[in-house]
Amino acid sequence: MSAAADTIAAIATAPGHAGVGVLRISGPLAPRIAHALLGRAPRERHTHYATFRDANDDVIDRGLLIAFAQPRSYTGEDVVELHAHGNPLVLHALLDRLVELGARHARPGEFSERAFLNGKLDLAQAEAVADLVASGSLAAARAAQRSLDGEFSRRARALTAQLVRVRTWIEAAIDFPEEEIDFLADAALRAEIDALRTSLADLLAATRRGVRLADGLHAVIVGKPNVGKSSLLNALAASERAIVTDVAGTTRDVLRETIDLDGVALTLADTAGLRETHDAIEREGVRRAQAELERADLAILVCAAPDESPDSDLLAALPDGVARIVVHNKIDLADSAAPRVETRGGVTHIWLSARSGDGLDLLVAQLRRHAGEGDANEGTFSARARHVAALLRAETSIDDARSALAANHGELAAEELRQAQHTIGEITGEFTSDDLLGEIFSSFCIGK
Ligand code: GDP
Q1: What percent of the chain has pLDDT over 70?
Q2: Which of 159, 158, 138 has the alpha carbon at shortest distance from 382?
Q3: CA pair distance 47, 414, nearest whole angstrom
């Protein structure tokens, strides 16, 4: 496959990175391009110091050149990397030179796509490359690294192996019609399919943790005007991005701040009070607040007085499935209120002061708990919504297979298991459509 591909080139350094710029070339012309730049054939995996010149022999830059011969490279093709100075003008001039020498501009994700097509990475690993680059926290980066190492793929393949074992058993039974019913009624077979179901549930839970870690926890701060939502956001973010005033309704926009709590990305949105208003601008704020709530994992309901309970309208406005924490702010104004945490009716209540900072650590601890702190140390791998969707479909197929088996429909059970195997194969890319591949790789950065 690599022999037929053309040669691609791209700047592989993150935009805005000033120090060093890296260009990457992959394809059959890569060695010839390296030869032209260096003035002689490069030694494989050897760092050459080179003067990069344009077509008029004028110097573009001086830097390092490293050649990797296929198949021992990232893409599995001949690859050359150039390390130059990080000036975008220099890097683009170098890229133009590479194109003159026969390469073409790489599409987003094309290096990883070639690595996938040449069997250097499976699909889940290729996605982990993009996730690693985009990680908003160290914990997420570690999880992406585990997926890149093949942790997720190994678990998906182990599940497939288990599936195949059960399916083979059932298919063997179908081949002996006179004994089929006895075969299918075997308690050991039922136990195998139950074990399969448990393995899938475990993998699904781990995959969901991986998605949450990669995406970060999305928390929304809500409450009536003037309870101290912006102050809380500011105290958490330790910045002055939110406007803090005494005038009700000044927070018309939805402000966002992403903070890193010990390696877990946490997004807070300070929203306008969720109340009816006749002011058009405020109404827009209310609409945005509702939209924020729709996509939140967690709502932080703020009320001001230590004894106040959260606004019942607000509670009613929260979509199902959004976890909630009630914050009783401004305890510095009450004589005897000390920072504390209490669980009331299954909901965590925290008493704190955004102004003095007392009790803020209690809230931070709760947020970290919600964000899955600790998970990151237990072999969490990065994952995506598409992986969860595939596992859910496989789960349905396995459930249907179990029902079919209970009704002694061996053929149907085998077919459902074949379907589940196919669905899980989509995770690692054993079964994929070109559309899916296009969708996945086009979301990568150029140069990856
Ligand atoms: P929002 O409308 O809910 O965003 O409320 P703000 O954060 O703008 O705060 C409204 C007012 O309450 C401001 O004057 C803040 O300084 C004040 N405030 C916020 N938190 C506290 C707190 O913990 N203690 C005291 N005493 N005042 C606070």
Answers
A1: 84
A2: 138
A3: 55
304 Cα–ligand 1 center, Å: 8
DSSP letter at 293? H
| pLDDT tens profile 303-341 | 987 767 777 777 777 777 788 899 999 999 987 679 999
Indicate whether 45 and 66 sit together in one domain.
yes
Residues with CB under 6 A from ligand 1: 223, 225-231, 244-246, 251, 329-330, 332-333, 353-355
User: Looking at the structure, do residues 44 and 115 belong to the same domain, yes or no?
Assistant: yes
Which residue owns the Cα nearest ligand 1 atom 22?
330
Buried/exposed code over 264-273 (b: 16+ C-beta within 10 A; e: otherwise) = bbbbbbbbbb
Q: What number does the ligand 1 atom closest to the CA of 233 have?
A: 7
pTM equals 0.70
Query: Do 263 and 367 share a structural domain?
Result: yes
Positive or negative, the CA dihedral 128, 131, 132, 136 is negative
- For residue 436, is it within any domain? no
**Is residue 233 a part of any domain in this protein?**
yes
Flag the least confident range among 85-89, 219-223, 251-255. Answer: 251-255
Same domain, 230 and 316: yes
Range of the domain at 109: 8-121
User: Residue with structure tokens 């250097």?
Assistant: 120
Burial code (b: 16+ CB inside 10 Å, e: under 16) for 312-339 equals eebeeebeeebbbbbbbbbbeeeeebeb
Cα(203) to centroid(ligand 1), Å:
44
The residue nearest atom 25 of ligand 1, judged by CA position, is 330
pLDDT digits (tens, 9 = 90+) for 126-138: 999 999 988 877 7
- State in Å: Cα 333 to ligand 1 middle: 11
Out of 222, 226, 252, give the residue to mutate to test ligand 1, the one with the largest number of ligand atoms within 8 Å of its CB.
Answer: 226
For the chain, the domain total comes to 3
349 and 227 within one domain: yes
445 contact partners, CB below 8 Å, separation of at least 6: 14, 108, 109, 130, 133
